[in-house]
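Checked the freezer inventory, then went back to the computational side. Two predictions to log before the end of the day. The first one is the construct we discussed on Monday; recording sequence and tokens without edits.
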Amino acid sequence: MERNVETFLGCDGTYEEARIVLYGAPFDSTTSYRPGTRFASRTMRAESYGLETYSPYQELDLEDAAVFDGGDLELCFGDVAGALGDIKAYAKKIWADDKLPFLIGGEHLVSLPAIEAAAEKYPGLCLIHFDAHTDLRDDYLGARLSHATVIRRAWDILGDGRISQFGIRSGERAEFLWAREHTYLHTFDFEGLEARLAAWKGKPVYFTIDLDVLDPSVFPGTGTPEAGGVSFPALLEAALHVIESCDVVGCDLVELSPPYDASGASTAVALKLLREMLLALDKKQVFNNR
């Protein structure tokens, strides 16, 4: 593992020293509405230098964290299965070296191979999913691999009782009905999160955040914006609470689409959330390894 030439701000440690490994999956070939998420990780990396490494929220600094930026994977846009296989192989390498992978998408389908790799390493894996959309279709226009089916495919791996969804405010009626029998689906906000975290205390958790869980007034730069979303402070508080309360073994942030926010504000929002999550994860790993 070689250091990437251009890294996320403050994430320029070596692979050997790192506790957390960032990597980008610039893939959006199954996007159902507006593509562009393939540019997210590259844009975030470049724009991160407008952010400070220090967090006044947590009184922690990325300069003190052990984070390695592995850069972006080279993924074939015309081969969905091949791209997913490459993501899974990279995630497995990180876990094999006892480090925590943090994936930057890309469309939400890129989460699936990371979840699959996590489930292979951690029996009993649970999934916490923040999103505007259910992502529970069995297929989208005949395709079983799509950003609209990613949580249904995760259910194929994990089964009932191990997926909890928050912020959901869009999906087919059939998806909501299906969720009543198979996932813990919480509409509109993060109500019920505390109870779910308590129930899953001590269990390995993969944490996936589709940034369109945010209201479009806060985060317009996404391919499928949905009105009625949460605020940035609410998302930040919930995300940090998940990290502090659970045994989080892997994370991702997906569905930033920079072309749909020329102001760059959406990228800035994504970056601040990324900084805070990295700091919380690093602090947790330091504490756990004492």
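The second is the one RB wanted added to the comparison set:
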Amino acid sequence: MNTDVELDVWREQWQADGAVPLNLRRNVERQSRLMRIGLICDTLVTIVMGGGTTVLALRSPESDFVLVAVATWLFLAVAWAVVLTANRGLWAPSAIDTATFVELSVRRCRSVLTTIWFAAGLFLCEVVFGLGWAYNHAIKGHATWWSWLFFSSLRIDIVWVCTLAFFVAIVWYRRKKRAELACLLELRREIAGPIGPRR
């Protein structure tokens, strides 16, 4: 989405007839669909990761896998609590007018900007736990923990590449959402005007 261009189009449509601009309505509906898809994906991750580590813990003769299952369920529970809290009241607009659609878009942007920090923190906790657990089960022979942690195997290299990619994506997405929020706030100010919102 080219935020500046799309918001200019919404502004022109709103000023022309006061109705909810079609592109704004479609954008809100698209975001709602993506939220539902995200909920489905979160459910699948819970089933696969939570269920998979539980089965692994039950079948493995090593008791250490119980720790992996417990940690996985803990990470999942925290993630669900944050996602459900962040999405509360953001599923659909409460009325069919431009001001309400813009307000919902603003609240969604703010919610995303808040949960980005949570996602980064949770990802780091998962990486630290995973690397710590893997190090305790690694083939010995490395002189130090550092020699194991950096470039000791393809798996470790993949962890670092994925971590770097994740944080680059987080920074890019945060900048995009901040720019979108600034434009939406400007549009909200224009809609409110000196005598309150147009309906």
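For RB: Helices lie at 3-17, 22-59, 64-87, 98-136, 145-149, 154-192. The mean pLDDT is 83. Let me know if you want it refolded.
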